Amino acid sequence: MPSPLRRTKARVLTLRRSVANALKLTIASSVYVYRWHTTQPDGDSRSHNGQTLTISHPRPLRRAPFPTFDNVHAINRLPLELLAQIFIIGSVADPMLPVTVSHVCRKWRRLALRTPALWRRITLDSRVDMWKERLRRAKACPLDIQLVPWFISYSRKPRIRLLDMATVQWYMHVVMPYIHGWRTLDIVFSDYSPYLWNAALSGCCSSNKAVRAPLLEELVLLYRTNDDTKEFLLFSGYTPRLRRVTLDGIKLTWVPSLFGNLTFLDYAHHGFSRGYCATREVLNMLRVSSRLVELRILFPQKRPLHHYSHSDPLELAPVMLMNLENLHIKAEGEDIPFELAHLVSLFQTPALKQLSLTDVNQWRSTFPSVRPFFYTYSIPETLHTLRAEYGWCDPNVLVPLLPTLPRLQRFISKQWGLPMQILNLR
Questions:
Q1: Residue 354 has what pLDDT?
Q2: Which of 298, 335, 367, 388 has the most crowded CB, counting CB atoms within 10 A?
């Protein structure tokens, strides 16, 4: 076989002109340069044979010009506190924003790692190790916990995922040791799977003081297709800072130490009780949460459940909501539910300013029970704004009602096939 090619002579090491010039410049700049100048001797100079010896300063090294203020990007001129606040606001819409900004440059990464509030939002999914690291970076900052059926992947496109009991319990196990630092808890289930509430809330239901949530301010629990009639007592009955609650498809034990300080309640009845029994249950809830400022109430369409409770007609005492200013009454069936009409007839809201009548399904025709509804529900004279949509819009009922409200300033109506109509009365 032929032998491989070999060099017959060794290559001579040579330096290019540019490399040689760079070396000369470096060496020359580090050595003192002696300059001899022929001058006339004077009394202050030291001379030798009529010549004066002058030693000049060393030549400085050539460096890149220092960046001026005009070369700095505009975002780097912002104070660090303002830049960190921008990142925190952006992380509300995109939970992966903290990771993105921490990979832009060293300055942003240092700022992101020193801002615990930037890592407070925990949207649980299969990336458990990443969420554990974010919990560590959040330090003592109150946490926002989310477990929702959709998540934003690395491609920034929302994707729907199916959750089962084992997966939910695995996710919640990550954040349960930090329950004392929860600020918000948002759990949403869209598809049916058995025992989801048991898996999600089992760690929160205990008489032990370790499961209390002293920093919790907002609670969202949504699972419309739930068929579990179990009643849950959360956080050992202690959430002194809880102000906002949104519920749908779950039955909770309504105690004053949990819900006594609420100012906002968006409640959709679970459907395990109907008729007078459902009305009594909601009234007892409102008596506990008598400090409400905004209330949204909905009795969903009747579902074919096998277990629900009835009760005979009862004389129920009215409930007084002294601070209630905004009332949203929602209906999603072909007519106004009996429970809803009976409930509002027992309201006393002396400070009510806004009343919204919402039709979830946006029916083309009006509800058959609109006229009896306004006969049983006495709207307070303090009302400033009245809004009626779709099935609630009956001109024969609403138009004669307007002159009876002396402080009414605006009436808003929305009917099928017509633009929204706004009538300013003041």
A1: 94
A2: 388
63 is written with which tokens?
A: 């460096």
φ, ψ of residue 269 in degrees (nearest 5): -65, 140
31 pLDDT more than 80: no
Q: How far apart are CA 107 and CA 112, in angstroms?
A: 9
Which residue spans within 103-253 are E strands per DSSP? 121-123, 143-147, 150-152, 158-160, 182-188, 218-222, 231-232, 244-248, 251-252
In the chain, what are the domain boundaries?
75-118, 120-424
User: Residue 185 has which token pair?
Assistant: 């808890």
All residues at 6 or more sequence positions from 5 whose CB lies less than 8 Å from its CB, including other chains = none
Q: Strand, helix or coil at 396?
A: helix
Q: Give the span between the Cα atoms of 24 and 18, in whole angstroms.
A: 10
CB 392 within 8 A of CB 359: yes
List, in order, residues 6 or more apart from 256 with CB less than 8 Å away: 288
User: Residue 14 above 70 pLDDT?
Assistant: no
Among 84, 220, 232, 246, which residue's Cα sits nearest to residue 145?
Answer: 220
